[in-house]
Amino acid sequence: MSTLQQDLRFAPVRTAAPKRLSQAQIASYNRDGFVQPFDVFGAAEIAGIRAYLDGLMRDMGPEGAYGINCYQSRLSGLWDIATDPRILDHVEDIIGPDILCWATAILSKKPHDPKAVPWHQDASFWSLSPARTVTVWLAIDDADAGNSAMRFIPGTHDRGAIAVQKTGDGAVFHKQTADAESLGQPFTNALKAGQISLHADMLVHGSEPNLSERRRCGFTLRYCPPQVQITDAAWASGVEAILCRGQAGDWTTHPRPANNDITQTQSPHVVGNN
Question: Could you give the count of Cα atoms lying within 13 Å of 8 in the half-sphere of its Cβ?
């Protein structure tokens, strides 16, 4: 695989007959770089998912809160969430009928967790081109400003790669979007457990330390169409994509795993999350 130059330009979504999103919501995604909230899992279903993810984090040990990355091809329970048709119908309205899931992560901020995720653009950490990944953020717990819900800076998704600067102590990443405060008023991605949001891969976003008494746990899923290419061979060696719907194009994909025991496998790849 040769190294390809990244195209980080945003391409407006045009969907003639959407399955879940209204044309107004698609216009909002094009304008702001995100759209939310959408009800997907009812109370009983999200309680079951929460219990399952809690079990994975317990089995993982101290690294469980932030270390369960990209297991979608290795754990059948995560595969089943990633391929749930209710999620995919929302994703299809953004990226089209051919859907790959190339990354997932459990992100659990415990009460009084001091870690901050600085302002950043996801695609700047990835070796993918063009920038067409949409991230689904599934709320496992209720998330709001009080317990450090993710925040977006609307409209920053179509500005290309924004300059970065070094971060200070206590940040998850070593770099952050420069002068983010000048880019606009942040929007708090408040979600009830079982709801999802969708955001573009070049949208500036981050989250603050969780200073509350409540946990804030979410499950992120990264979806792209097969037109997206991996631009770096070394990076490609750690990507284990699954085909969720339609055709895979040139991507190598993995079937639903028989295993659902995290102690019997490990993550193939780690990418930046929040």
Answer: 18
